[in-house]
Amino acid sequence: MVQRIVEAARIESLDPSAIPRLRSPERATVFAARAARLLQLADAGNPIAGYLRLMAALADAQQRVLTRFSAPMPSRESIELNQRHSMPIIPALTDTRDPAWRDVLSMLLDGIETAGALTPALTQLVARLRATDAAALDNQADAILALRFAEIDPASAPFIAAALQVVWTDLASRIDTKDVPYLDAPGVCPVCGSVPVASIVRVGGAYEGYRYVQCGLCATELHVVRAKCTNCDSTKGIAYHAMGSGEESDDEKAATAKSAPLKAESCDECGTYRKIGYQDKAYDFEPYADDLASLTLDLLMSDAGYRRAAPNPWLWPEQSEEDR
């Protein structure tokens, strides 16, 4: 199959209504596909294969919980209010978060235990999470959603984030995309207000050749014109970086970058990068999973002086005293 590549200038000239602006999460498969991709990447000899297998078990648990979970949908009045003010339609940072998310967390921990994925250290962590009171869990959820790094417990954060993902993915899968307003702020999910983790250039059907950023919380995908920074919207200073052996010639590096299924897209205007994958080069590419599994590329970008546009909610950096 030959992929149709649509250049940025051509996309800008098209009728915007002809390009699907949003791609809702596929409720029946969203976490199952993520789990399968994590296992595939782990089996390929990834340096953090053990962690990827644990996260695959967590994603499997998410899919099982999602099949029987249904959160209350926002009222029509709430939707219309957010539309009028160009606000996310179901914002994650809210004082009225459904307390059922903590029940989801408990079910996910049950799923991890059932999968037999517990090491002694993980057994202690699960016990600590189960013993944590509701207020403390909500405080951690707030810190994760607001990206208040100094307040986040890196060990427990992936499991708390996973529970929040189930809740908001459930909502996002049932929302009418026609109700979702346009936001003024670039790099923000118009469904839940969270930030994307990575982007994907898709193949097939109405999405052929278009680039979408995937929200790290609700898994909604938002179309963003290629050759544009997904963090600050700039079209200047965009460059692409791929992993190589470190010993290639300049021509070999260029060839590697051209054929790589995963790259880091950097922006000199804001000094950030976000990874981008190409489904025509790796059909099973899953933005969240592939981002998590490509830490070596993160190290390369850090050495080059760029910072991540947003963290992966399943891998939080330890904070040093000077960072706090």
Q: How does this model look, in words?
A:
The model is unreliable at 1-14 and 320-324 (pLDDT under 50). α5 crosses α8 (157-174) and α7 (134-145) crosses α8 (157-174). This protein has 2 domains: 26-178, Alpha-Beta Complex (FdhE-like fold), CATH 3.90.1670; 181-308, FdhE-like fold (Alpha-Beta Complex), CATH 3.90.1670. Strands 1, 2, 3, 4, 5, 6, 7 and 8 form an 8-stranded mixed sheet that branches. The chain is globular and about 55 Å long. It is an alpha+beta fold and 324 residues long. The longest helix is centred in the N-terminal third of the chain and has 18 residues, at 49-66. It has 11 helices and 8 strands. A hairpin with a 4-residue loop joins β6 and β7 (272-278). The chain has helices at residues 8-13, 30-43, 49-66, 76-84, 100-114, 120-131, 134-145, 157-174, 250-259, 287-292, 295-303, and strands at 22-23, 196-201, 211-215, 221-223, 238-241, 262-267, 272-278, 307-308.
